[in-house]
Design goal:
alpha+beta, Ubiquitin-like (UB roll), DNA polymerase, domain 1, five-stranded mixed beta sheet, elongated
């Protein structure tokens, strides 16, 4: 780690300082260095959305952001949002609507759903679909996921 850069970020409310290789992406840092494996590595091109995390209140693709770019930032992962109870209603709706299936996309879907809930709490079904369009799911056909989010937003 000859070229490592000292980086400090707050992850799920805990300040973390590490020496990080400049080329290491955020999702790999979270998974390998901090053991936060809820955000998944899928395509590594920012297309599938499996690596979604929240940085300073905005959802981002963890595979496209370098960990050193998060210096001074507040990073929230699915673990932090779940532990805080922020996702409780969405998690229950996903369970009730069987929107989980294999679970690989679920953390990112929940992160995107929460982002929509915060930004557009009265979103229409079409707006829900549009907001989720950056997150791939190979199992559900999306119907149950949209139903679950609609239940929370409109219920």
């Amino acid at each position: 780690m000859e070229h490592a850069v000292e980086t400090t970020l707050t992850v799920n409310g805990i300040e973390v300082t590490r020496r990080i290789e400049p080329r290491r992406n955020l999702v790999d840092f979270l998974r390998e260095e901090l053991g936060l494996t809820g955000s998944h590595v899928g395509c590594e091109h920012g297309v599938c959305g499996a690596c979604t995390v929240r940085v300073d209140g905005e959802i981002v693709r963890g595979c496209l952001m370098l960990a050193v770019q998060a210096n001074g930032c507040k990073v929230e992962t699915i673990e932090g949002l779940s532990d805080s109870g922020e996702l409780a209603r969405l998690q229950k709706a996903f369970h009730d609507r069987n929107a989980l299936q294999c679970g690989f996309c679920t953390p990112a879907m929940l992160m995107a759903a929460r982002d929509l809930q915060l930004k557009n709490p009265k979103a229409s079904r079409e707006e829900i679909r549009t907001h989720l369009s950056g997150n791939y799911c190979r199992c559900t056909g999306y119907q149950a996921i949209v139903d679950a989010i609609e239940d929370v937003l409109h219920g």
